Amino acid sequence: MLLPGFLTIARETALPLAIREIGSSAGLNLVFDRFRYVYGNAAWGSGHAPVVLSPEVRGEKPVPLEGNLEIATRAGSDISPVDIAGEAERNRLLSYVWADQALRSSRIEAAIGLAKDAQVRVARADAADFVRAELAGRREGEAFVLFHSIMWQYMPQASEEAIHAALDEAGKGATRAAPIARLRMEPLGEAPHATLSLTSWPGGETRRLAKCDYHGRWIEWT
User: Which one of 51, 144, 157, 165 has the fewest beta carbons within 10 angstroms of its own beta carbon?
Assistant: First the structure.
C-alpha cells in the first residue's frame, strides 16, 4: 500500500528519501524497499527478494511504479518497540499472526530477517517528540518523509496536535532542495477501507492517492 506513495514522492522531488516512521513496532516497514511487489501485470523490486507482496489491483487506473527510489536514511519510533534481536520478542511478534495463515507467517519471518540485516533503528519514544527531533535534523538534498500506517487512531489527541504543529512549522521552511512529505495509510471517517494520503511541503497540499484494504489485500489508485 505504501510503495506507490514513496515512488510518487521520489518522482516529484528527484531526491533521496530520509524516511521516518511512527508506530514502527519492529521496524519491518522501514525496509519496504527490499521487498518485491506485484500489482497485476506490473512488478517492482528484486526478483530474489524473500518478501513478496501482491495485492489485488482494483479500479481502472494502474498503480504507478515509475521513478528512481533511493533511501538516504531510515529510522522509526514506537512507545514500545519490538526488539527483533531477541528470540522472545521475535516469537511474541510472530504470535500475533493468525495460526492458520502460513503465507503470512513465512512472509513476516522473511521480513524480520531483512530488518535484522539492515539493522533498522526503532527508538523508544513518544511519536511527537520523535517527529520534532527528526524534523530539526533534516538535511538539504534529501526529501524528509514521515510515514505511518494504521496507528493514528490510537494516538492521544495531544500527540496528534503536536505532530501537526511540528509539521506545519517545519513546512514553512521547506524548499525544493529540502522538501517534507507526510505519507500515511489510515482510516478516513466511516469509510470501509483505509486511504493512502500524501501531504507535501512547500505548499502543504494534501492528496488522496489510493483506497486500500486494511490488511493490504487490495489497492485502488485514485
Answer: 157
Tell me the pairing of strands 218-221 and 205-212: antiparallel
Q: Is the peptide bond before 202 cis (omega within 30 degrees of 0)?
A: yes
HSE-up of residue 39 (Cα within 13 Å, Cβ side):
23
Task: Give me the half-sphere count of Cα atoms (radius 13 Å) on the Cβ side of residue 220.
Answer: 10
How far is C-alpha 36 from the geometric centre of its chain's CA atoms? 15
Residue 123 makes CB contacts below 8 A (sequence gap 6+) with 75, 76, 77, 78, 81, 130
Half-sphere exposure (CA, 13 Å, Cβ side) for 219?
24
Return the exposure string of 110-138: e unless at least 16 CB atoms fall within 10 Å of the residue's CB, then b: bbbebbeeeebebbebbbbebbbebbeeb
Q: How far apart are alpha carbons 181 and 174 in whole angstroms? A: 10
> Do the beta carbons of residue 211 and residue 195 sit within 8 Å?
yes
What is the reported pTM?
Answer: 0.96
pLDDT tens for each residue of 54-70: 999 999 999 999 999 99
Under 8 Å between Cβ of 63 and 57: yes
CB 13 within 8 A of CB 73: no
DSSP 8-state secondary structure symbol assigned to residue 84: T
